[in-house]
Write a structure and sequence with these properties.
Elements: H1 2-46, H2 48-57, E1 59-65, E2 72-73, E3 79-91, H3 99-110, H4 122-132, H5 134-139, H6 142-150, H7 155-164, H8 168-172, H9 176-190, E4 197-200, H10 206-214, E5 222-231, H11 239-242, H12 257-261, H13 275-279, H14 281-284, E6 289-295, E7 301-308, E8 315-318, H15 322-341, E9 349-355, E10 362-370, E11 376-378, H16 382-385, H17 395-404, E12 414-416, E13 419-420, E14 426-427, E15 437-439, H18 441-447, H19 450-460, H20 476-488, H21 514-520, H22 530-541, E16 545-547, E17 552-556, E18 567-570, E19 575-578, H23 583-598, H24 605-608, E20 616-626, E21 629-640, E22 647-657, H25 667-685, H26 687-698
Parallel strand pairs: 2-8
Antiparallel strand pairs: 1-6, 2-3, 3-4, 3-5, 6-7, 8-17, 9-10, 9-22, 10-11, 12-15, 13-14, 16-19, 17-18, 20-21, 21-22
Helix pairs in contact: 1-2, 3-9, 4-9, 15-25, 17-19, 17-20, 17-23, 18-23
């Protein structure tokens, strides 16, 4: 009993002790809460107006800071365009920074860095002198100051007079250090408020960078960061096609200002100006770093916050095979020199396009322009921005137009003999200038018969040829029909290439020009681009599908490392149209292309009959003039292998001498076919190449080295799906009058 009482007494003591502790803790909590309430009351009542005023006079500004652009790579992952980092010194002008304060900062900064003054303008010197010598500046325009007050002149006129009246000796006597300060001051004042402006990012030394970094607290608005420049691992290869990016100093070019400003860009943003950099700007530009700055009433920054860290642009993977591209350029220069040494001394341009006829992927392209002194310069953009009279290469399209309109039938025989029209006009074939030979349509392509095409054009216009007949009086309707057939294979309409400045070709009215209508049927009137010729060859070779060519292949997500990120989207070539011909009709044209390259009587036999895989195609010779003297353009279109093509090409040489029109220009096409298929065979036989291909497939990369579908489906079965070209031109199936001048005149 006693034991129980003792235990009870012990428990009560513990409970009392615990209660005291709890009460003590509650007491402290109540005390702290009371202090917080009093403090809150003090802030709201006693200091509320003060903080309300601070909030009222503060401002939140969001500033976007640039990030590096995305890379450009070839189809095999080789980096073609990259970023080279470089040190940069920037300045951000506060909302209320006065010119005096900016000048003071410029003077401080000039003691830490060397500034290039070569681009300093007279106006820059004047602005600096006025800011540095305000009393002297006012003294020289005392009269004008009174006139401003009287309203006699505007403030703008007053400022103009002040600049013009500065004694020239004052500007001439500026020291080198003054000029450096003036250059820095000019850069600082050129930027918009709260927008970082580059002061120096070329040749910033380690010493300069460190000195400025250490003095940032004394340099209001100045910062040190890393900038970038585009670098090109393959030097000048495709340099024109990659395009250019504006500099920090240039910002958005004037010609593109409205376009970019409407998309939310700032005036001093670096942007893509030309070709791929421009076409794929939305992909390559990246997402800017977003900073939120809070400024006080004076405009000084009192707080900052990173809203978005920013990320460099996504990577653009091209369909180009850089190894094939380099080989093409090597071979092109070799053949140019060879042809000029063999008599083509006036030849001034050579252009070639190589693409996959089933997908539209451009594998390689090159243009070379030969100066009078023999210097060879890059002219790659000429493959889509210049047009030429191409001659007989188009005759396959003429036959397709004839079939479409019921003018001729497959296998139809005609007599190739000189045609005599009323008035004595004579037209004949080059291979048969005076004789008489019965040929069918496929043989007409093999021999490149002009007469067969002329008679087809007459039939399309509703006429049968008879000796001494007059030329048709009105061929406008027939011309529309013929051109519609040409358009369907890509001649005379834009191809839809994903590059700006593509031209249609030169298309002139035919109503009162029946002779020109006949010339149109043999490629002697309208003009076409090398890319149009390649699309035409692809359309014939792939079964009649006109496919949009594209240099972009896929978009890869940016990573912080050198390796490629996952595929974000693929860029597929859209099927623009299917030609209105039966398989039988198309097969007959393909048969003619086969004969042209592989029959001993074919015009392309000399160059193409022994390619490593059988090829097919058509040659052309167009009469043109150079400085009033007759010349010829030589052209070649084709594909290989002939029965299931993986490669299509076009070649244009301009201004060959007339006495020697059949120089071996097709050898370039032969060499490219041989190189390409030998390389593909080596890839198939190389186990490491297969392993790499499997690895790429597992990483989500395209599984085909040459852009073909592994299942061998036709373009029509693959025309759905994919995104289409990211910024490519629209489907244009009707010829429109181009703005550009014709590249060459026709006879």
């Amino acid at each position: 009993m006693l034991k129980r009482l003792k235990e009870k007494s012990y428990d009560e003591k513990n409970i009392n002790k615990m209660n005291k502790r709890i009460n003590f803790i509650f007491g402290i909590a109540i005390f702290i809460f009371a202090i917080l309430v009093l403090r809150l009351g003090y802030l709201q009542i006693a200091q509320g107006s003060h903080y309300s005023e601070l909030i009222k006079n503060s401002e939140n500004l969001t500033v976007n800071e640039p990030v590096p652009r995305g890379r450009i790579l070839d189809r095999n992952g080789n980096v073609l365009v990259d970023n080279a980092s470089k040190k940069s010194i920037t300045y951000t002008r506060n909302r209320n920074s006065s010119p005096d304060e900016v000048l003071e900062t410029a003077e401080k900064l000039s003691k830490l860095i060397e500034m290039d003054t070569s681009k300093l303008t007279p106006r820059d010197k004047q602005d600096y002198w006025i800011q540095k010598n305000p009393e002297k500046a006012k003294e020289i325009v005392k009269k004008e100051e009174q006139m401003v007050q009287d309203g006699s002149i505007s403030q703008e006129d007053y400022d103009k007079q002040m600049h013009e009246k500065i004694p020239q000796e004052e500007l001439d006597n500026l020291s080198d250090k003054d000029k450096e300060v003036a250059a820095i001051f000019s850069r600082m004042m050129s930027g918009t408020m709260m927008d970082p402006q580059t002061i120096k990012n070329e040749d910033v030394t380690e010493k300069e960078y460190a000195a400025v970094s250490q003095q940032l607290s004394n340099l209001s608005g100045v910062n040190t960061s890393m900038d970038w420049d585009r670098k090109y691992p393959y030097d000048e290869t495709l340099r024109e096609i990659f395009g250019n990016v504006s500099s920090e100093e240039e910002g958005v070019p004037k010609g593109l200002l409205n376009e970019y400003l409407s998309k939310g860009y700032s005036r001093n943003d670096r942007v893509g100006k030309t070709y791929l950099e421009y076409q794929y700007e939305n992909i390559l530009k990246g997402k800017k770093k977003e900073m939120k700055y809070t400024t006080d009433k004076s405009g000084s920054i009192i707080d900052s916050e990173v809203i978005h860290p920013g990320s460099r642009g996504d990577d653009l993977v091209l369909s180009i095979d850089i190894k094939l591209q380099q080989k093409l350029e090597e071979l092109m220069e070799k053949h140019i020199k060879k042809l000029r040494s063999e008599g083509a001394k006036d030849m001034d341009k050579a252009l070639m396009v190589v693409q996959n006829p089933k997908t539209g992927e451009v594998l390689a392209l090159s243009g070379k322009q030969i100066e009078k002194d023999g210097t060879i310069k890059n002219f790659d953009y000429g493959t889509f921005s210049t047009q030429y009279t191409v001659g007989s290469s188009v005759k396959g399209a003429t036959l397709l137009a004839g079939y479409q309109n019921g003018a001729i039938k497959v296998g139809e025989q005609m007599i190739d003999t000189p045609m005599i029209f009323n008035g004595g006009l004579k037209k004949s074939s080059y291979f048969n200038k005076d004789g008489s030979k019965e040929i069918n349509d496929a043989e007409a392509l093999m021999h490149s018969s002009n007469v067969y095409m002329f008679k087809t054009a007459l039939k399309l216009a509703g006429y049968e040829y008879k000796e001494d007949m007059p030329l048709p009086s009105d061929v406008s309707e027939a011309g529309i029909k013929l051109r519609k057939g040409l358009n369907q294979v890509g001649l005379g309409v834009k191809t839809g290439l994903d590059l700006p400045n593509e031209v249609n070709g030169q298309i002139e009215p035919l109503k009162d020009n029946p002779g020109n209508y006949l010339d149109l049927s043999i490629g002697q009137y309208d003009t076409y681009t090398p890319f149009q010729l390649a699309q035409y060859a692809s359309t014939v070779g792939n079964g009649g599908y006109r496919i949009q060519p594209h240099i972009g292949k896929e978009i890869r997500k940016a990573t912080n490392k050198d390796e490629l990120g996952p595929v974000k989207s693929k860029i597929d070539g859209n099927v623009l149209n299917k030609i209105n011909n039966s398989d039988k009709e198309l097969n007959q044209v393909q048969k003619g292309f086969d004969k042209a390259f592989n029959d001993i009587n074919g015009t392309g036999y000399m160059s193409f009959h022994d390619t490593v895989v059988p090829s097919a195609g058509k040659t052309g010779t167009a009469e043109v003039f150079l400085d009033g003297e007759p010349r010829v353009n030589s052209t070649y279109v084709g594909y290989a292998p002939k029965d299931d093509p993986e490669l299509a090409f076009s070649i244009v040489y301009t201004n060959h001498p007339v006495p020697e029109p059949f120089l071996p220009g097709g050898d370039l096409g032969r060499d490219i076919i041989n190189y390409y298929f030998k390389e593909e065979k080596e890839k198939e036989d190389d186990p490491s190449s297969k392993d790499k291909k499997t690895e790429q497939s597992e990483n989500g990369e395209a599984s085909s080295e040459n852009g073909q579908d592994d299942n061998g489906e036709s373009p029509s079965e693959n025309s759905e799906g994919g995104n289409g070209n990211q910024n490519a031109g629209t489907n244009q199936q009707n010829a429109t009058r181009p703005e550009d001048e014709n590249e060459s005149q026709t006879q």
